[in-house]
Design goal:
There is one protein chain. The chain has a single domain, classed as Calycin beta-barrel core domain (Lipocalin, Beta Barrel), CATH 2.40.128. The chain is built from 1 helix and 12 strands, in the order αββββββββββββ. The chain has a 10-stranded antiparallel barrel. It has 170 residues and is mostly beta strands. It starts with a helix and ends with a strand.
Amino acid sequence: MLCATSFAQNSFPESWIGNYKGDLKIYGVDSVKMNVKMYLDIVKTSKDSIFDWTITYDMNGKKDVRAYNLVVIDREKGYFQIDENNSILIDAYLHNKNVFTSFFKVMSSYIIATYIKNKDGTLTFEIIAGKADSVSTTGNTKQGEEDIPEVNTYPVNGRQKAVLRKTDQD
């Protein structure tokens, strides 16, 4: 039994199960443009490889609930999917046992979504978004014997961040 408990405490997503809440800060160029209450509920379902992953945004009493599922695809490789239950599947990856990241393009924007489980048990959630149209292209030259690759840069036009604290007791 100790082995199973140890596994659950050190594994993802089992060790992240719980209800979390915090303030999501939506940043403009030079300041916080909006604060939104954010909740994340991670719950084990009856299927071994599926967890409820429910995000709720509360904007002045109006709740926007995103009832997703987290699906374990290959635990050893740190490969998971967020199933939005509307035909959208977002591939996501776990690194260092505490950093869960997805990187995707929707319409004309790239989005990087990251959840970090901190040593104090909080989760830091961050979104970085940018337009998919390159703002500049450099490189693609030869410097002496070295071939310099082409590098495209993209404008970052959105950033959101929240520190989510566990609301339930184990």
